[in-house]
Design a protein that fits this description.
Elements lengths: L1 H20 L17 E8 L2 E6 L3 E6 L25 E4 L5 E2 L12 E3 L6 E2 L12 E3 L6 E2 L12 E3 L6 E2 L12 E3 L6 E2 L12 E4 L5 E2 L12 E4 L5 E2 L9 E3 L4 E3 L3 E4 L4 H9 L2 E4 L19 H15 L8 H7 L9 H15 L6 H8 L1
Parallel strand pairs: 3-4, 4-6, 5-7, 7-9, 8-10, 10-12, 11-13, 13-15, 14-16, 15-17, 16-20, 20-21
Antiparallel strand pairs: 1-2, 2-3, 18-19
Helix pairs in contact: 3-5
């Protein structure tokens, strides 16, 4: 009897296990599946581009090539115009090569955007009035940023400008009152009219020596700006008092600046400050290099000529400078204000001369050959 009881117990145990693991045929298992966002609207936004806006407010742009460019501020021409206020996030997929004019202008709910490395240009007013944007990273592939692009943006606190961009255009960051810091890369050669006008959150900024011109109202009415450093001693600065100012005095109808302008001795920055009665702080004498000696070694040779040619090639194709101020001055060996193949040829000819034993100095050689 004991043996029978043990066998029966084993059979019962197996039945219990089976009852746990097996699902009766008449019972359907419950599987929970996360609901995906539904498409609200879709269409085309370029010859080979499509867009989809989902119920969560994500706008995705896919395909290859350029987005359509529309007339600036003619927002009703934008494909997603009727749904602009519901857009919270924009995903631009790899393959899209530009962001069109006014593409996301006045998308006040937009808080996040992804820009791929395939994008090379951002059109006029592309993000104008996007008050919900707090930060944005522009990829190194972008070489052109249009007018009013972020005029695009009281919530913007930080912006990364890549080394591929060579100019900051007209009113690019106008009235970005939340912008507290930005780094201007060495690739930038000019800063356009009103580029940072009304950026009341900026407290200090450094203009690299690659910048050759600062236009009118560039830093106008930047009320918290206490310090601006201009590193190019020959930078052309529009002589208006409004070019750099912390406010406007309505009693005498004139701009004023409560901060300090820093620059090199006898620089255009010093001249601008003194002309307008602004405080100037000297950084000392501007750095210099011997004429023709671009890499600051003991020789003037093919290495220096190559550096000049690379600079010339980069500038000729619309790129930014590859040399600093002192190097550019040293590279302009014939003194015509430009760096080009003529300067490189002169350096190479001099190198050829001294290689054969001629003891002539470089200044004497230039004097005899220009």
């Amino acid at each position: 009897m004991k043996k029978i009881k043990k066998i029966s117990a084993g059979i019962i145990a197996l039945c219990l296990i089976g009852s746990v693991t097996a699902i009766p045929e008449n019972i359907t298992p419950v599987v929970t599946v996360a609901e995906s966002a539904e498409t609200v609207k879709s269409g085309t936004c370029g010859e080979n581009l499509t867009w989809v806006l989902d119920s969560e407010g994500t706008l995705t742009i896919s395909g290859t090539g350029d987005m359509e460019n529309h007339r600036y501020l003619w927002l009703h021409e934008i494909p997603w115009y009727d749904n602009m206020e519901s857009i919270k996030k924009v995903i631009i997929e790899d393959g899209v090569t530009n962001i069109g004019n006014s593409a996301f202008g006045s998308c006040i709910g937009l808080t996040e955007i992804t820009i791929p490395d395939s994008v090379t240009s951002i059109g006029i007013g592309a993000f104008k009035g996007c008050t919900g944007l707090t930060e944005i990273t522009i990829p190194d592939s972008v070489t052109s940023i249009g007018w009013y692009v972020f005029s695009n943006c009281t919530g913007l606190t930080e912006i990364t400008i890549p080394n591929s961009v060579t100019s900051i255009e007209y009113c690019a960051f106008e009235f970005c009152s939340g912008l507290t810091e930005t780094t201007i890369p060495d690739s930038i050669t000019s800063i356009g009219i009103g580029a940072f006008k009304g950026c009341t959150g900026l407290t200090e900024i450094t203009i690299p020596d690659s910048v050759t011109s600062i236009e009118d109202w560039t830093f106008s009415e930047c009320s918290e700006l206490t310090e601006i450093t201009i590193l190019n001693p020959e930078c052309e600065i529009d002589d208006s008092k409004g070019t750099i100012s912390t406010g406007y005095n309505f009693s005498n109808l004139d701009y004023y600046f409560n901060g300090t302008i820093k620059g090199y001795e006898n620089s255009t920055a010093q001249a601008y400050a003194e002309e307008n009665g602004y405080t100037f702080q000297s950084l000392g004498e501007a750095p210099t290099l011997p004429l023709g000696n671009i890499n600051d070694d003991e020789y003037i040779d093919a290495v220096d000529a190559t550096a000049v040619l690379m600079e010339y090639a980069e500038l000729s194709t619309g790129g930014g400078t590859t040399l600093n101020y002192a190097q550019r001055k040293a590279g302009d060996v014939n003194g015509d204000g430009e760096i080009n193949a003529v300067d490189a040829t002169l350096i190479l000819n001099y190198y050829s001369e001294v290689s054969t034993g001629n003891k002539i100095t470089f200044p004497d050689f230039i004097s005899a050959n220009t």
